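*** Fold description ***
***
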Amino acid sequence: MSDLPFLNPSILKQLDLPVPSRDTTPQILQPLNLNRAFEPSVELQAYRQLYGFHLLDCEHWQGYVQMPLFKLHVQIFQPDLTKTKFDKIQGTVFLLHGYLEHSGIYQPIVKELLEQGFSVLTYDLPGHGLSNGSPANIQNFDHYQQVLHAVYQYVKNADQLPKPWLGIGQSTGGAIWMHHLLEFAQRRENPFVERVLLLSPLIRPAKSAWWHNSVGLGIIRRIKREVPRHFRRNNHNPEFLRFVRLKDP
């Protein structure tokens, strides 16, 4: 994988480690517990090696937050300050991924944030990564706000996540943050985060897409509940694109 931290899944097999799977790996997740050090199972050790999380200088917690209809896979990273130039944690970044992605492939961003002295919280959106649910199931976008609020309630007093809280969102993740900010502004309340960084935020669908208008959406919902993923050259690193398209399980 050259300059990328990701492993070829075949190497995991050579190491006698199981290749992570959406079918089996979520079943071994335990409830997220920030009151003690986390000891990953063999399956989660494999997950961490596949995506390079074992290379990070941090304390790493991983587990699920129970939602009404599914379990949400959540990861929290706290920097090892002895490996940074800081004497205290600079704040916390909530990192939200994009459509048909998952938090595993965001290891390079997590690494950079840790090196800048920030704790990081990231989770797999419903139906993505190790979170339960049908992949990319078409739902009311308010559902993503309910998930964000539930995570906030779960971690709002966590010592590992000091303020200020900041948000980063890619594509759908960016849209979630925009929705959150607008929702709280309408209620004249302070949002969870002080600032956000939006990476190619999903503002509105392309005009050529079937979901561009309510008529098309109403028709397609009767026959199709999922949107297939199409790979485009939306990244300047060909090795990353190759991993996501051909190697990422």
Remarks:
- The helical segments are 9-14, 42-51, 107-115, 142-155, 172-186, 214-221, 238-247.
- The radius of gyration is 18 Å.
- The longest helix spans residues 172-186.
- The first strand starts at residue 58 and ends at 66.
